[in-house]
Fold this protein.
Amino acid sequence: MNKQTLIDADFKHIWHPCTQMKDHETLPIIPIKSGKGVYLKDFDDNSYIDGVSSWWVNLFGHAHPYINQKIKEQLDTLEHVIFAGFTHEPIIRLSERLCAITPAGLEKCFYADNGSSAIEVALKMSFQYHKNRGEKRPFFVSLSNSYHGETIGALSVGDVDLYKEIYEEILLPTFQAPVPKDMSEEAAREAALGLEAIFKEKGSVISAFILEPLVQCAGYMHMYHPLYITLARKLCDQYNIHLIADEIAVGFGRTGKMFACEHAGVSPDFMTLSKGLTGGYLPLSVVLTTQKIYDVFYCDYGEFKAFLHSHSYTGNPLACSAANATLDLFENEAVLEKNQEKIACMASKLEQFKALPNVKSVRQTGMIAAVELQQYPVDFRVNLKIFTYALKKGVLLRPLSHVVYFMPPYVITCNEIETMMDVAYEAIVSLNRL
Ligand SMILES: Cc1ncc(COP(=O)(O)O)c(C=O)c1O
């Protein structure tokens, strides 16, 4: 099929995620032919630096030879098997490794196949833990401006109006504690007081508090100090409320350490992982939890305390082989150490944005950098303008409203970081000329 046939057939049959499909009447969708390293290539042989790691999943670039090889080996061995009553080697290896590298105390892995489903699992498990022990705690607390996915439970604990507002009537009632307003310790302390106030008033009916440690990615790349996680952990302990760390976006090195909770030295009761887990190859997610929580579900059959939750593709062996290959790369290639240089490159390029009159602020946590622009009217469509400009210059950026951000694959070089951020700079400058 040629490019135009693909575009037409796509428009005829496909409903794309998070998209007003009418936009594609005037802005045709871009069929991608191939990917290699940090680049995606279209049907006109244009290459684009994937500045958003294809929705934050792609850690080691596209078509990584080692991950490719490991998936191919697995493909000839076992592509899938029902995961109730059966198991397989890739998932056992993966689980041992995840338990070894995540914060202390996380010893049990429950798998699903996307981030939102992992959130559903963590919420349900937390609720059922209390119920199995004879307590009814039907509420959850999350942070203002949070995002945890778009299934009903995950959306209920989210707080980004754009995704949530329309469904309000069918969502679970939840409480939102204030997110620290900036990256200072003072803001962390102040926000913790807000959390404490909710716990004081409602603590006995709350199952869990869920947060995105350090960076609220879909919440316009809002960032806060690790002290907040430490304080939240203490409050959760005090009120016997579970702490769920949603590391779906920030896990696997994004914040500079393997897991964002490490910045605070905190072990959550549940940790959710997905996205980078398979290096961006295949859908897989996991909820890690403690022996203490697991034990509350462990009993004779007739007591009905088991966690009766399942997904057909749970623990898919191909996805697990991609995840094991991803962890091999972290182990064998000193990725976190090498990323330090890239983090520094991003930091120095970020400086230039501060002088622009339409830039409100810039921020960075590890391999995530963001430039917040002044607010533009909705119909100005600032994100679309930046996206279109950058694409013409060979860079894939997908600003969140007025926040232009960079979350590239770790195989990016400092030269490519410069190109990516220079193009964003030009795009932002170009807004002043419109
Ligand atoms: C922090 C966080 N949690 C959960 C999700 C949902 O993951 P998925 O899109 O795989 O359902 C996302 C997705 O962006 C996320 O950023």
